[in-house]
């Protein structure tokens, strides 16, 4: 990402993601997109949320989309999709990223044979979700990675740690996360409570680093694939 862009011109473009007069992000329809300059190219990526039931997949998807998060766990039925737009400047070019996020409930994945293949088809990135309060789920993460990804996918893999603010109940340490990153060469991103529950900062400001990282990683993946070809 261009240096200091996120703190300068980038703020103006990010405002186009909001409902006018509010700090709440707009939910764009199928044929809609943010009002950015026509010269800005659009790139689309498919992301698949994966993890055990209760790991925070749907919660993470709603945070990425800037929508209200569920207050209690309800198992996702079938497949749920959400589109997230994010403007970002790479080099000297303004690019509008469109992230198609797919979320499938664990029970549906196990019950219906077509669910997992549908989510994996054409996937560009897999977000492996786990809860910092669930040691068993954390230890099962390497096995789950081999279940959901194949070398032929060439998908970028990112681990997402949820419930990071529940310090009293944490069963996974920062040392665990650091060792995992070194062993598997997979970045771990942390997500805690929604912004209104923390320091009063708006959702867009809090989620910008997360979305910037994802878009940059997807762009780097494309460059790596092009260099291989």
From TrEMBL:
It is found in: Cytoplasm, Cytoskeleton, Cilium basal body. Keywords: Cell projection, Cilium, Cilium biogenesis/degradation, Cytoplasm, Cytoskeleton, Exocytosis, GTP-binding, Nucleotide-binding, Protein transport, Transport. One of its GO terms (molecular function) is GTP binding. Pfam families: Ras. GO terms for biological process: cell projection organization; exocytosis; protein transport. Belongs to the small GTPase superfamily. Rab family. This is Ciliogenesis and planar polarity effector 2. It comes from Meganyctiphanes norvegica (Northern krill).
């Amino acid at each position: 990402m261009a240096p200091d862009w996120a703190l300068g011109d980038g703020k103006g473009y990010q405002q186009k993601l909001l409902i006018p007069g509010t700090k709440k992000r707009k939910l764009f329809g199928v044929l809609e997109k943010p009002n950015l300059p026509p010269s800005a190219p659009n790139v689309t990526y498919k992301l698949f949320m994966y993890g055990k039931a209760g790991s925070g997949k749907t919660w993470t998807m709603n945070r990425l989309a800037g929508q209200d998060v569920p207050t209690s766990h309800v198992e996702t039925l079938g497949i749920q999709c959400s589109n997230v737009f994010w403007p970002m400047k790479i080099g000297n070019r303004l690019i509008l990223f469109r992230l198609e996020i797919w979320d499938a409930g664990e029970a549906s994945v196990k019950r219906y044979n077509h669910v997992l293949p549908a989510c994996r088809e054409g996937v560009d990135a897999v977000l492996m979700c786990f809860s910092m309060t669930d040691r068993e789920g954390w230890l099962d993460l390497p096995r789950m990675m081999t279940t959901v990804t194949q070398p032929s996918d060439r998908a970028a893999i990112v681990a997402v740690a949820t419930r990071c603010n529940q310090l009293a109940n944490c069963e996974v340490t920062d040392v665990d996360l650091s060792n995992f990153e070194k062993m598997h060469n997979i970045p771990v991103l942390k997500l805690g409570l929604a912004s209104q529950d923390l320091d009063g900062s708006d959702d867009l400001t809090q989620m910008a680093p997360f979305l910037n990282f994802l878009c940059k990683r997807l762009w780097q993946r494309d460059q790596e694939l092009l260099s291989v070809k």
